[in-house]
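Question: does this match?
>
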Amino acid sequence: MTPLSRRAFVTAATASLLAGCAGQAPHRAVTTAHRGQPSAGAASSAGAASSAASTGPAALGRSTPVRLRIPAIGVDTPLLRLGLAADGTVQVPPITAHDRAGWYRHSPTPGQVGPSVILGHVTVGAYGDGVFRHLDRVRRGDEVVARLENGRSAVFTVGEVRTVAKSAFPTQDVYGDVDRPELRLITCGGPRSGHGYLDNVIVFATLTGTG
């Protein structure tokens, strides 16, 4: 990751603007991650996904993810590329009838060293359920497969699923550097408040296979 993209990555807003979360104010990360220094929370979360992290599959080269599958909850979605909005917050997928998840392009691509971040909606307004509507049903040991533009696949195993208050979003655990390929899936969850949700659901997963 270049210094510019890394800086954008760790100073961007967290995922609290996900649709179905309308009315929730965004907030920015205020910490700076250091390359190769994993945060304690992120390391322990994803560590549960594989007991042999140090001997796991070799990291992949950078290649844009084009599709995401989570068989346990029936997700099979094309992936959009998301950047930063004009106000510096993380973009989210548009509200459409055919909802898709999106990869945050200032994060590593799935299979690269570091935390690759993918965002999806839990609801899409008048269109109903979003692509990540059942993300809170994912369990430790479930498989997540990211298909890459170069034809390869990165296979991740879930180590932890957290539901956290938006006011206590674990920015460093989600966006901070780690020393192996990991994945973060983020959506809204918890109780509703007005037109939005009070919490975020975050899946932490570690690379356990490639294809």
